[in-house]
Amino acid sequence: MTSSKKVIPKIDYGIILTLMLMALVSLIAIYSAQKTGQYKVNFVPKQIQWYVLGSVAAYIVMRLDSDQMKKISWYAYGICAFSLFGLLAIDALGLSKEFFLAPERNGARSWYQIPGAGLIQPAEFMKIFLIMVLAKVTSGHHVKFVHKTLKSDFWLLIKLGAVTGVPALLILKQPDLGTALVFIAILLAVILVSGISWKILVPLFAVSGVIGSALLYIAVYYHELLQGILEPHQYKRIYSWLDPWNFRTDEGYQLVNALQSIGSGMTVGKGFYNGEVYMPESHSDFIFTTIGEEFGFVGASIVISLFFLLIYQITKTGLDTKNPFYSYICAGVVAMIAFHVFQNIGMTIGLMPITGIPLPFISYGGSGLLANMMVIGIVLSVRYHYKRYMFASDEE
Predict the structure, then answer these.
(1) Rounded distance, CA 47 to CA 138, Å?
(2) Is the CB of residue 12 less than 8 Å from the CB of residue 315?
(3) How many domains would you assign to the chain?
(4) Where residue 392 falls among pLDDT bands split at 50, 70, 90?
(5) Of 258, 284, 309, 296, whose CA–CA distance to 361 is shortest?
(6) What pLDDT was estimated at residue 322?
(7) Where are the transmembrane segments (predicted)?
(8) Mapped to the 3 state alphabet, what secondary structure does the chain carry?
(9) Domain that holds residue 212
(10) Is a pLDDT exceeding 70 seen at residue 391?
(11) Does the pLDDT at position 220 exceed 90?
(12) Least CB-packed of 146, 225, 315, 323 within 10 Å?
């Protein structure tokens, strides 16, 4: 009998290959989407630039081990929270919508204007640091409370909720409901894998479900009761989501065009650069409509399959590691990507209300793509810093 020892590679080339395929899809879709002429800018070179910059950032992050991530997590979280508060302060001062430091775009002041870099959205980077802090808080809590009780579990739940609540509320005030919901999705994922007793989680989720359903019912039929909570444009988005054809010249315009665009693609699509339906923001939030119209059900299915593959790879990474901190991070990353994909694709087919959430790694975006690549860098660091050996034996 002989035995052989095989060292698992420090680099997860499977994830890198998946990202390369997504980058190719992104560049093809963005190039074709630009024919609408909404913007007089070629976004393809800019997307390549952000992918290159994101790859460098991912490599740098990958070199950080779990201890280094824990040390910087609270500092990075604090800086991002302060920047989010700064946006609200600028807005509260009543400065011009075109104020050079933080201009308003699409009714929200969510960006800083950085010379030479363009618009930077702090909320995108806060997703990274929120995941890191939630992982640190959860792993640290279990080290401190070795013997679990309902009291210790409840205390952990409060800490996780407080950490998430601060940035979520700041982002909600911008207003940016879509991004705030991403934070909630990340929180729920970490809670589910944190080991908190189901005696606490079942009643919590049940009550949350009832409250959410009740608020949606009130928003549709008794919206006057929510005055001051939801903005007028948010009411319109709910109504246009439920009945887009009656609002096709207003809030339902994008959804109607998205449905026509994807539907007209049928099975194999109209072909590259042959899209005919005009779709605003087709290079960013509505990039999936370009894919659906020009490459049909087949092309759309391939893109969705790439996301399933990426989520599977990240999930496997989280399950393979024996470092709880990394496991919680992978759970948060999976939730972040999955929610983005479900919400973005869902809003283009009428399954979800329209929000300004891009399709990860596919939509054009500076801050969003850079932040997503940094998140992948964190996932790659799991294998990079974790030496594991596989033993095999064969009988001669």
Answers:
(1) 36
(2) no
(3) 1
(4) very low
(5) 284
(6) 87
(7) 12-31, 43-62, 74-94, 114-134, 154-171, 177-193, 200-222, 295-313, 325-342, 362-382
(8) CEEEEEECCCCCHHHHHHHHHHHHHHHHHHHHHHHHCCCCCCHHHHHHHHHHHHHHHHHHHHCCCHHHHHHHHHHHHHHHHHHHHHHHHHHHCCCCCCCCCCCCECCECCCEEECCCEEECHHHHHHHHHHHHHHHHHHHHHHHCCCCCHHHHHHHHHHHHHHHHHHHHHHHCCCCHHHHHHHHHHHHHHHHHCCCCHHHHHHHHHHHHHHHHHHHHHHHHCHHHHECCECHHHHHHHHHHHCHHHHCCCCCHHHHHHHHHHHHHCCCCCCCCCCCCCCCCCCCCCHHHHHHHHHHHHHHHHHHHHHHHHHHHHHHHHHHCCCHHHHHHHHHHHHHHHHHHHHHHHHHCCCCCCCCCCCCCCCCCCHHHHHHHHHHHHHHHHHHCCCCEEEEEECC
(9) 2-394
(10) no
(11) no
(12) 146
Buried-exposed string 380-394: b where 16+ CB fall within 10 A, e elsewhere? bbbbbbbeeeeeeee
119-166 tens-digit pLDDT = 889 999 999 999 999 999 999 999 999 888 899 999 999 999 999 999
- What are the tens digits of pLDDT across the range 261-288? 999 999 999 999 888 888 888 889 999 9
Tokens of 356: 């300004």
149: region left, alpha or beta (phi > 0 left; psi from -120 to 50 alpha): beta
Cα angle for residues 249, 252, 257 (degrees, 5° grid)? 85
Question: What pTM does this model have?
Answer: 0.91
